[in-house]
TrEMBL record:
It holds the Pfam family Citrate_synt. InterPro entries: 2-MeCitrate/Citrate_synth_II, Citrate_synth-like_lrg_a-sub, Citrate_synth-like_sm_a-sub, Citrate_synthase, Citrate_synthase_AS, Citrate_synthase_bac-typ, Citrate_synthase_sf. The gene is citZ. This is Citrate synthase. It comes from the Bacteria. Coiled coil: none annotated. NCBIfam families: cit_synth_II, PRK14034.1, PRK14035.1. GO terms for biological process: carbohydrate metabolic process; tricarboxylic acid cycle. Belongs to the citrate synthase family.
Length: 373
């Protein structure tokens, strides 16, 4: 048996959702550079789910459906109040809340495409409410109900702070959502597809995907980047910190990628936003530290930054708590997970690879009394 560690380079499915070819990322054939500058996140959701950009009417309908489905069942909100709130990571809370949501959806186990699409709307609509509600409850604040007159990006920031966000914050957050929406067969998307390929339900697929995104080698890296910036503290400490880590063969979070070689095309957009926003908020040192880290890591290891590197200082500049960075990734990526889940159902086959066994050879069972102490 030939083992490909980490399934590197293995092509496991066909997909018409997003592609990474020669370091260019496209959603349904639209270059991410084009979408990052021009698209709203709502348009991207529609694009991923329908493989075409919406007409004005189609976009209005989707926006309306998302707004109408944003509220959470009271039971989910009450459940947050039962957690050991100061010890729970918001990704754990999100994972549990999505699983719980499934219990209050009468269509949870329905498998027809129309029911699955309705569940996709509900999940996409409710994830921002889950994240912001949890974030407020743990601070002893009342949840802020979603509004139907705000864009998806604006509504998230509004529900988080209780105040209408500035246009520049809405623009930055919308762009971040667009940039994170889908990424071919990354670990969390693959997890979602493996889960639903058993013909399990959409809620199970999304719960599994959230679990996979949480790890610091994947979506959890954005929070880890912010932790590193906070630990470093100032630009003059960057060199010694980074060089010591590299000498100790430790990873620098936010660098490297399984697929990109020359660089992650999303990072440059986040870098521009980071410079702009850190200057506006009077915290330019996070951007300065980041560029210094980038110079060292690319110079020494030839590893370019990935999407998680500059998103950290962008979210910090928007006043977002650091442990909400990965849940925000999920608020965007759920659009891609849902697109992949629906695509998997359309042409399903169980995903079941093999393992090359390396344990002991045949053994004979010995009763416990004869095995010694
Ligand atoms: C949204 C996302 O998921 S983007 C990725 C987010 N994750 C991170 O930023 C975490 C840091 N980066 C990494 O751990 C890796 O680059 C990954 C997980 C993204 C990709 O992993 P893989 O393709 O399996 O590469 P792997 O971990 O085998 O690294 C290959 C070599 O580059 C080195 N390397 C890779 N990333 C880094 C890094 N961030 N810092 C230092 N060295 C690194 C490894 O140590 C290894 O060196 P070696 O061959 O001398 O042992
Ligand atoms: O594709 C990957 O391996 C990780 C990634 O960048 C993403 O999920 O956005």
């Amino acid at each position: 048996m030939t083992v490909t560690r980490g399934l590197e380079g293995v092509v496991a499915t066909t997909s018409s959702i997003s592609s990474i070819i020669d370091d260019t990322l496209t959603y349904v054939g639209y270059d991410i550079d084009d979408l990052a500058v021009n698209a709203t996140f709502e348009e991207v959701i529609y694009l991923l789910w329908h493989r075409k950009l919406p007409t004005k009417l189609e976009l209005e309908e989707l926006t309306k459906q998302l707004a109408e489905n944003a509220e959470l069942p009271k039971e989910v909100i009450d459940h947050f109040k039962m957690y050991p709130i100061d010890k729970v990571h918001p990704m754990g809370a999100l994972r549990s809340a999505v699983s719980l949501l499934g219990l209050y959806d009468e269509e949870a186990d329905a498998m027809d495409p129309e029911a699955n699409y309705r569940k996709a709307i509900r999940l996409q609509a409710k994830l921002p409410t889950i994240v912001t509600t949890f974030a407020r409850i743990r601070k002893g604040l009342e949840p802020v109900a979603p509004r139907t007159d705000l864009s998806f990006a604006a509504n998230f920031l509004y529900m988080l702070s209780g105040q209408e966000p500035e246009p520049i914050a809405i623009e930055a957050f919308n762009k971040a959502l667009v940039l994170h929406a889908d990424h071919e067969l990354n670990a969390s998307t693959f997890t979602a597809r493996v889960c639903v390929a058993t013909l399990s339900d959409v809620y199970s697929g999304i719960t599994a995907a959230i679990g996979a995104l949480k790890g610091p080698l994947h979506g959890g890296a954005n929070e880890a980047v912010m932790k590193m910036l906070t630990e470093i503290g100032s630009v003059d400490q960057v060199d010694s910190y980074v060089r010591e880590k590299l000498e100790n063969k430790e990873k620098i979070m936010g660098f490297g990628h399984r697929v990109y070689r020359k660089g992650d095309p999303r990072a440059k957009h986040l870098k521009v936003m980071s410079e702009k926003l850190t200057n506006l908020t009077g915290k330019p040192e996070y951007y300065e530290m980041s560029t210094r880290i980038e110079n060292i890591v690319t110079g020494e290891k030839n590893l370019p930054p990935n999407v998680d590197f500059y998103s950290a200082s962008v979210y910090d500049s928007l006043g977002i708590d650091h442990d909400l960075f990965t849940p925000i990734f999920a608020v965007s990526r759920v659009s891609g997970w849902l697109a992949h889940i629906l695509e998997q159902y359309e042409n399903n086959r169980l995903i079941r690879p093999r393992a090359d066994y390396t344990g002991p050879g045949m053994q004979k069972y010995i009763p416990v009394e004869q095995r010694g102490l």
